[in-house]
Amino acid sequence: MSEREWIEKDFYKELGVSSDASADEIKKAYRKLARDLHPDANPGDTAAEERFKAVSEANAVLSDAAKRKEYDEARRLFASGGFGRGGYRPGAEYSTGGGGFGGGEFNIGDLFGGGTSYTSTGDGGIGDIFGGLFGGGRGGGTRAGTSTRPQRGSDVEAETTLPFREAATGVTVPLRLTSPASCITCHGSGAKPGTSPRVCPRCNGSGIVSRNQGAFGFSEPCDDCRGTGSIIDDPCTDCHGTGVQNRTRNLTVRIPKGVSDGQRIRLAGQGEAGLRGAPSGDLYVTVHVKADKVFGRNGDDLTVTVPVSYGELVLGTTVSVPTLEGRVGVKIPAGTVDGRILRVRGRGVPKRSGGAGDLLVTVKVAVPQDLDETATEALQTYLSAEKASGFDPRAGWAGA
């Protein structure tokens, strides 16, 4: 794919967001589309599969702040006519005056910061824009003096939902992914088994060719090898020379202990396969944690609320409290007030660095809704004795 074809793609339209959408809006739009269009949800639907590829490609650029900035700048230059109607043309005249770039009125000094000549070894301008978007990517362009390397595979995102306790203690989960992966027939080389790619004779394997145009020097992707640096005379019939196939893979992912809701786990090299044996991208798994009926979490501390009676708070007692690893006895001192938090060291959420947070136990009085005659009489006797002792629960409250 040429640089022009790449830039003329409207990635914002693919995701259904505006060009000024925030990173969160882009992320939410991609996740929704990816779920709706995933091949597993649309078996045999080639149209959905193509849309899935398109939105994945759009997300790969727009979710990366640096790539998005370069993409926006390049599209702005195309839209303003900086490259002429037909986009960048290798044979066009380039000047510091009114000609060039498709015959439009354009001052190259404005583009390159006042310079009078351009080479791809300079800083800024078109070279940097294309270098960022295409230097290691699909367009194949690089700066002069450097070699073009095979394109690294894109990163892949997946999601999994875990119960609270499994997320806290760590668990191994299976994942089923459908994404571009290394071709099993040619092992990613792109060449038919028994053959090998050969070095491109025109660019000597660099993937770029240089030429001079008056006072300017230009470097362009090699047309013969399309910027890859190698030529495949006998392509693999299964992947058509790309070295990549769409495959469904079953992975086992180890979720570390103490993972929190929304945390991303990175698996290096488990993303999309790179073209012609290039390194694979990474897999990022976003973990969602379900709420638990008993436990809560505050950082690395585990929280739990224990119901107790009024008498237990007044007289003191020891209660059995659940933890992630069984139950422990927690002493409630005599005279403990309702809502007090008791801390049990080292019984909280395990830390990846070792050890664990604390268990925070909140005591909450449970009020009986129905008392028999004996209990009612006993309580009335107690209240009379309490009043006689001089205790007033509302003393000093609200100006009393």
Structure description:
Helices cover 25% and strands 24% of the residues. Helix 3 packs antiparallel against helix 4 and helix 5 (65-79) packs across helix 7 (125-134). It has helices spanning 3-8, 11-15, 23-37, 46-62, 65-79, 108-111, 125-134, 164-169, 310-315, 373-388; strands at residues 156-162, 171-182, 198-199, 208-213, 216-221, 230-231, 244-255, 264-267, 283-289, 296-298, 301-308, 317-323, 326-332, 341-344, 359-365. A hairpin with a 2-residue loop joins strand 4 and strand 5. Among the domains are: 150-197 and 232-290, Urease metallochaperone UreE, N-terminal domain (HSP40/DNAj peptide-binding domain); 296-370, HSP40/DNAj peptide-binding domain (Sandwich). The N and C termini lie far apart (82 Å). The chain is an alpha+beta fold and 400 residues long. The model is unreliable at 82-148 (pLDDT under 50). The strands form 6 sheets. It has a 4-stranded mixed sheet with strand order 10-11-15-14. CXXCXGXG motif repeats lie at residues 183-190, 200-207, 222-229, 236-243.
